[in-house]
Design brief:
- The structure is a single chain.
- The chain is an alpha/beta fold.
- The chain folds into 2 domains: 171 residues, HUPs (Rossmann fold), CATH 3.40.50.620; 92 residues, Pantoate--beta-alanine Ligase, Chain: A,domain 2 (2-Layer Sandwich).
- The protein is built from 10 helices and 9 strands.
- α3 links the parallel β3 and β4.
- The protein is globular.
- The structure holds adenosine monophosphate.
- The site of adenosine monophosphate has 17 residues, from α2 and β5.
Length: 282
């Protein structure tokens, strides 16, 4: 089947395409993804097009951000379907390199942001954010786009990417896109495809606990007590593991003992064999 969108597979082709648009006076938005696209990803493209004239999306399932016991092999892949979805929201080009192009023999450079990756998800996914920072640094420097868009669903990732892009003078504006949720409130995620119908129903406890914890804190309950109640809700729903439920500063990601401006409630846990994350503003 022919793709409804042009697909390039090397950094040189990506850069040439972006430069050609920029030479014609157009601003280019870049949206990195791992494919298996849903409406959350498409919202990033739409936001990109609010800040630029042309949007380019990348699809690359990055092995360096998966731990040895994580779901790299079963991660959903659907390049043909993704191309149709991206075309439908006005994306102009797909960058889909293969692993050997991104990490050829002899590859030896890593980007490690210090501090932020040690917290929250980093505690249970050692090395994950080094893999993310490395691939995003490569993608952003290959693209040379004017803006890049990342989802607030991965709030910690967004904070790390902002830090990395500033520290390394990447020169691409970083924008965050609000979380897109299913009608019942579950944040859209490519990993939701792993959930059985029963797990899908019980997964709702995560966003519901975030909302209830928020309401409790704003209602005056001490933060520790509100978090403990939220943890009980999530565990009662049958999450086999709760990695964290915490109130943190939205930039430093440090735990907060009391409500503050810019605070964010963050949660992550495992239902069945699927790890889900979510967060909301306080
Ligand atoms: P992924 O393909 O899961 O690596 O995600 C690619 C980008 O889409 C990341 O910037 C994610 O934060 C973003 N994203 C994923 N799910 C959502 C969602 N439900 N709402 C908004 N952005 C999302």
């Amino acid at each position: 089947m022919t793709s409804p969108l042009p697909i390039v597979r090397t950094p040189a082709e990506l850069r040439a395409a972006v430069r050609a648009w920029q030479s014609a006076g157009k601003r280019v938005a870049f949206v990195p993804t791992m494919g298996a696209l849903h409406a959350g990803h498409l919202a990033l493209v739409t936001l990109g097009l609010a800040h630029a004239d042309v949007a380019v999306a990348s699809i690359f399932v990055n092995p360096k951000q998966f731990g040895p016991n994580e779901d790299l092999d079963r991660y959903p892949r659907d390049e043909a379907g993704d191309a149709i979805k991206l075309a439908s929201v006005g994306c102009s080009l797909i960058y889909a390199p293969d692993v050997a192009t991104m990490y050829p023999p002899g590859f030896a450079s890593f980007v490690r942001v210090s501090g932020l990756p040690d917290l929250l998800c980093g505690r249970v996914r050692p090395g994950h954010f080094d893999g993310v920072a490395t691939v995003v640094a490569k993608l952003l420097s290959a693209a040379g786009a004017d803006v890049a868009v990342f989802g607030e669903k991965d709030w910690q990732q967004l904070a790390i990417i902002r830090r990395m892009a500033a520290d390394l003078d990447i020169g691409t504006e970083i924008h965050g896109c609000a979380i897109v949720r299913d009608v019942d409130g579950l944040a859209l995620s490519s990993r939701n495809a792993y959930l059985s119908a029963d797990e899908r129903a019980r997964a709702l406890a995560l966003p519901q606990a975030l909302q209830a914890t928020r309401a409790a804190i704003l209602g005056g309950m001490p933060v520790a007590a509100a978090l403990a109640a939220g943890e009980r809700t999530i565990k009662a729903a049958g999450f086999v593991r709760l990695d964290y439920l915490d109130l943190v500063d939205g930039e430093t990601l440090h735990s907060l003992g009391r409500p503050a401006a810019g605070a964010r409630l963050m949660g992550a846990g495992v239902i069945g064999t699927t790890r889900l994350i979510d967060n909301i503003a306080l």
